[in-house]
Design goal:
Layout lengths: L1 H17 L28 E4 L4 E3 L5 E3 L3 H18 L5 E2 L6 E6 L11 E5 L3 E6 L2 H14 L14 E3 L2 E5 L5 E7 L7 H13 L4 E5 L1 E2 L2 E2 L8 H4 L16 H13 L3 E8 L4 H6 L28 H16 L5 E5 L8 H17 L3 E5 L12 E4 L7 H12 L3 E4 L2 H4 L21 H5 L15 E8 L7 H8 L2 H10 L7 H9 L2 H7 L15
Parallel strand pairs: 3-4, 3-5, 5-7, 10-11, 10-19, 11-14, 14-15, 15-16, 16-17, 17-18, 18-19
Antiparallel strand pairs: 1-9, 2-8, 6-7, 6-9, 12-13
Helix pairs in contact: 2-3, 4-6, 8-9
The structure holds acetamide.
């Protein structure tokens, strides 16, 4: 180790000197003053050209934004991240000027798309340019990561606040970069969901899939079927009080997600995973008898009654009300583990339900079992199989993909965030095996499913099922450090994929999570800095 020390320290001192900072007596603190290299970001940027002097945020820095509502809002968001730790005023202004932190929206550079951005950093300014506000927001996340981890703290820190010189040009590999939170098995409050949204935004995740119903709880108010929430939402795994979102609360989640450029994808799981609904309304059961509420963790025992007309009145009402709460494109109808529905009934059910989603202007997403029925035109299938899933089942999904069904990849033995890391992980399940950090990151969505065209892959999603997860601390521990790796698979070009380089970039995130109060799993596979 010793022989590496001197050059690194020298390099640091040179960078610090280049920034015009006194280095007298700086040697012991030099490690704190290292300027984060431009490419040391998660997800890895598409293109990095490191050159020139760093930019330094000071007490005189202004955040200069375009005269647009979105740019002003993103500028204010950035100011709120930076002010507590820097202690600077950082006024947000639409006075033009060539210095400071500049956030610019311009339609000029078509290659950036709606989510891409360019970040240029040099002596007088750091400028983020994007075509769309989502791109500007993603560029701001990159800027956060280029600043020292202490920038995330909520009290004044010493700095200095340097951004390495050069240019990042960055666009996503996939348009669908998701995370799912199961709010049914355990209920999570609006504030808990917002906390997770903020964590997802840091890694440029752009879809929040909420699993809003399951056997153990119905979590969204539906005016035409009020007992779904008030009774069906009244418990959870283990028998706790559960809960549900009123429409106002749900709108608040959607609005908050939108402000972080995440689209909420709501899921009502059908025809299985429906005990909470069946318990709430006797008429939804084939025998007309409501089962008791359920607080265990078995799956596959419940089914809507496929032959009853009232089932489709129910589905129509729920989808109509949910679609009205959903500005996004997608509505997820579940369709997994329908073990108590015959194949014939499953196909008939999906044939009737998918057009209801279309009727209310939304695009169907279903778990990949939907490919055993006839996926609607434009539908996406979310693959959650394992390496050990049968070739026939994989081929069924691949054939649908060849036939035009888009895929979201969530292989359970790679990206299910509820799988234990090792046998010693105190939380989580292990039916898909143990999923350490390298296993979670080290695969390529582009050629993952044999026989599925790369062009069918719309993206990736990291689901977090919550049979064993009931607090934000639990979410933190299971999501970190795996979630950023899945986000990187969704964002970064395949050419950047390299575990040995990734684990170093990931390790550098650890102090940032410490500063944000995110309690993560200190995987021995990752070279974390000493605490
Ligand atoms: C699932 O894990 N049942 C989609």
């Amino acid at each position: 180790m010793r022989q590496h020390r001197t050059p690194r320290l020298l390099g640091t001192l040179l960078l610090v000197a280049a920034a015009g900072i006194s280095v007298v007596g700086a040697a012991p603190a030099a490690a704190d003053r290292t300027v984060t290299p431009l490419g040391q970001v998660v997800p890895a940027p598409a293109s990095v050209d490191a050159s020139g002097s760093p930019y330094r945020i000071t007490g005189g820095t202004r955040i200069r934004v375009d005269d647009s509502r979105e740019a002003r809002r993103i500028g204010s968001y950035l100011a709120e991240v930076l002010r507590p730790s820097t202690g600077y005023r950082l006024p947000v202004t639409d006075d033009s000027g060539r210095d400071g932190i500049r956030l610019q929206l311009t339609r000029k550079d078509a290659a950036l798309g709606e989510e891409g951005y360019r970040l240029k950093s040099g002596k007088g300014a750091v400028t983020i340019t994007a075509r769309g506000p989502a791109g500007l927001f993603h560029g701001v996340q990159t800027l956060r990561q280029l600043l020292p981890a202490a920038v995330e703290k909520d009290s004044a820190q010493p700095g200095p606040w340097l951004v390495a010189g050069g240019t990042i040009t960055d666009t996503p590999r996939y348009g669908y970069r998701g995370a799912m939170l199961d709010v049914s098995r355990h209920f999570f409050t609006v504030d808990q969901v917002k906390r997770y949204i903020d964590q997802l935004a840091l890694y440029k995740v752009n879809k929040l899939h909420l699993h809003l119903s399951d056997d153990q709880g119905w979590r969204i108010a539906i005016d035409s079927w009020p007992r779904l929430a008030t009774y069906g939402g009244s418990t959870q795994v283990g028998g706790g009080p559960g809960g549900y979102y009123t429409k106002a609360q749900y709108k608040d989640i959607v609005k908050y997600a939108t402000s972080r450029y995440l689209e909420v994808v709501p899921e009502i799981d059908m025809p299985g995973h429906t005990n909470a609904a069946l318990a709430s309304y006797a008429e939804l059961n084939c025998d007309g008898v409501a089962p008791p509420l359920y607080t265990g963790t078995e799956v596959g025992f419940s089914s809507l009654c496929v032959d009853k007309p009232v089932t489709y009145d129910f589905v129509d009402d729920v989808i109509r009300e949910l679609a009205a709460l959903t500005p996004g494109e997608y509505l997820h109808i579940g369709g997994d583990e329908a073990h108590s529905t015959s194949h014939e009934d499953y196909v008939a059910f999906m044939d009737k339900v998918q057009p209801i989603v279309a009727k209310y202007g939304k695009t169907v997403v279903g778990w990949h079992q939907l490919t055993g029925a006839t996926p609607a035109k434009g539908a996406l299938a979310q693959y959650w199989g394992l390496d050990s899933t049968s070739a026939a089942e994989k081929e069924q999904v691949a054939a649908a993909a060849r036939n035009g069904t888009g895929l979201i990849l969530s292989p359970a033995d790679r990206v299910y965030l509820d799988m234990k890391y090792t046998k010693d992980t105190p939380l989580g399940l292990d039916w898909a095996g143990y999923v350490e950090v390298q296993r979670s990151y080290d695969w390529d969505p582009g050629n993952y499913l044999p026989g599925a065209p790369g062009s069918s892959v719309q993206g990736v999603e990291a689901p977090l099922w919550t049979e064993t997860v009931s607090t934000s601390a639990h979410i933190d521990y299971m999501a970190f450090p795996r979630l950023p790796g899945v986000a990187e698979l969704g964002w970064s070009p395949a050419s950047t994929h390299d575990w040995d380089a990734y684990k170093v970039r990931l390790a550098a995130q650890g102090p940032r999570w410490d500063a944000l109060g995110i309690g993560y799993y200190r995987s021995p596979q990752v070279p974390w800095p000493a605490e």
